[in-house]
Amino acid sequence: MTPPTTAATGQRRNSAGLRRDLELLEALGTDEALQQGGLGVVRLAELAGRDKGQVSRTLATLADAGLVARDPVTLGYSLGYQLYALAARTAEARLVREATGYLRRIVAATHETTHLCVLRGGSVLTLASELSEHAFRGLGWEGVSTAAWRTSAGRVLVSGWSDEELAAWYELHGHDEAIVSPASSRPSGPSVVPPPPPPPGKLLVTDFDSLLAEIRRIRERGYATVDEEFEAGVVGVSAPVYDFRGQIIAAVNISAPKPRLGAHLDAAGRLAARGAAELSAQLGAPELTPPG
């Protein structure tokens, strides 16, 4: 029998090393590791059935790459920031890929600009935009962060939280500037307006109580609306996108000049909600009870 070539042997050896690395990462993702805030070298060696010295050297290499983190006090290891960053980028890349067709269908139906947005702390980040063919249209916001409490997308993105979670979040972010970053990259267009006083008969978010009232309306209707609360002359609607856990991970937004869309916000909201629901199903979301 012909012995394996050096290259083939090296490939198998590298594969075996990768498998051993993955075993340790999987062990750090177990309920035991998560509940204890990490595991020590001895316990990881027991779980992997490997020599303690080998496990220690492997963990040091993984720590250098940011794939695991070592607590300086307990000396326990946990999954590292780089692993979470890679997972987040992978998930968002799939989200954008899956969403593109739905955004285009909404643009075809409404002839208005449509966005896919996610939450970043107190901010809304636009991952993707599909522009309308109108010369005067809602603008693309890719890469620009905006204060979540000021926008329909932001209110939708936090609408699955408890009142206590909302209160803690609003305490931190309820006074954020409208444009968080990067303001310099914002194209010229309709000007962002300061928070106006609520006109008679119109619900605007100006404090935590009005935010909570708006969140409850979003839950009942399945979408949010804004009427010149963020950009002068611009209105918009947003609806939630759910993942396989039934958690809100994104928002589908339609924005347009008020003369074109202002009289049709509820119809646009229902359309956005249908598109968001179809995207959610594509992402494996459980069947949700329709609002209302």
From TrEMBL:
Region of interest (Disordered), residue spans: 180-199
IclR-ED domain residues: 82-285
Gene3D superfamilies reported for this sequence: 3.30.450.40, Winged helix-like DNA-binding domain superfamily/Winged helix DNA-binding domain
Domain of life, source organism: Bacteria
Stretches assigned to the HTH iclR-type domain: 15-81
Entry annotated with the keyword rRNA processing: no
Keywords on record: DNA-binding, Transcription, Transcription regulation
UniProt name for this protein: IclR family transcriptional regulator
